[in-house]
Amino acid sequence: MSDLFSDAAHERMPEVAPLALRLRPTRLDDFVGQETVVGPGSALAVAIAEDRVASSIFYGPPGSGKTTLARVIAHTTGSAFEELSAVSATVADVRAVLARATERLGTEGLRTILFLDEIHRFNKAQQDALLPAVESGLITLIGATTENPYFEVNSALLSRTRIYELEPLSEDDLAIIVHKGAAALETDLSRDLVPMIARLANGDARTALNVLELAWQTAQAEGSALTEAHVEDAARKRPVVYDKDGDAHYDFISAFIKSIRGSDPDAALYYLAAMLEGGEDARYIARRLIVHASEDIGMADSNALLVAVAAAQAVEHVGLPEARLNLAHATIYLATAPKSNAVITAISAAGRDVREHGAIRPPKPLRDAHYRGAKKLGHGEGYVYPHSDPRGFEVDYLPEELQGRRYYDPEPED
């Protein structure tokens, strides 16, 4: 009976499945976007067409086409296609797939492709269980992940796979997908609705089709034409694609600092807002501002460090959401301040000498002479006190082996 019910459910699935699932392409010719990865003549497109896809990991944000590409491979390959979700699969599930792959290869000479969704959810033991089969070629692994695989996947497994990074879809790509969705729903969209949905989808094809479908259902229920109000209601709030514990944490803070370094306050404020909206730790942002104040502004405007420290103190005393004003204040100040990397250049050069020559003891005139017996050792002897004798300002205070070194190079005055 269970088989009977399963067959019936499978037949009715297209009637109840979401629009995004119903429109998922099974041929590469129908795939929209990601031209750099699967465009005509690309290595992956040729490999799919010739059914020789190597073990790969598709990495990108939600709705960028990772699972769809796996489905395309499933429908074009002559190999057996197995699928697991790392959210629910166990080591026993992996071993069962490997056992079936071994049997197929031995009895039919048939290769096996394993699609592993959310591969970053697999722990080390589960990933290790896959390694020998991938290495020997028993299975071709196709992994999909929203997390940077270089952070989440074992290096041994990474070295045996090809990494393809998928980007959020462009609004032009999403417009094509929205048009396909409208055709499937047999509805007409006004000229302004297509770009509106594409914009609200924020690079996510699934979101675009979900918004379209919900807006269409609402309009149908009201017996009216589909309008901007229906789309706005379906979209509600644009999702902030930001994982403060993952890849976005590093990418956004990097873009934030580089925008400040490049004196672009508008870009810096945008990345600051994105981090705060995404739930980033405000104290972490404040710490990065303090570092940046000395690293990239430094002696060009020493007040930058005071402003950054004050913003960090404000975060502690005021807290969010009000402290976003203090962080924005510091961000604008640092972005518009003159820039100098003399501080980091100086300490880095001094550090290189310490690593190369060791911590060379200071010359005897500079050593501590305040304890009993220090003078007998010659400590402090010959020291010229600059406030009493200006010649003290002309002394090279470095150890003899390093005298003449110049670490701090003040930038010339304008």
Features:
Rossmann fold, about 55% helix, flat, single chain, five-stranded parallel β-sheet, about 5% strand, alpha/beta, 19 helices, Helicase, Ruva Protein, domain 3, about 425 residues, Zinc Finger, Delta Prime, domain 3
Description:
The chain is an alpha/beta fold. Among the domains are: 34-165, 3-Layer(aba) Sandwich (Rossmann fold), CATH 3.40.50.300; 171-235, Orthogonal Bundle (Helicase, Ruva Protein, domain 3), CATH 1.10.8.60; 247-336, Zinc Finger, Delta Prime, domain 3 (Up-down Bundle), CATH 1.20.272. It is built from 19 helices and 5 strands. A 5-stranded parallel sheet has the order 2-3-4-1-5, with helices on both faces. Strand 2, helix 6 and strand 3 form a beta-alpha-beta unit. Helix 15 (265-277) packs antiparallel against helix 18. The radius of gyration is 31 Å and the shape is flat.
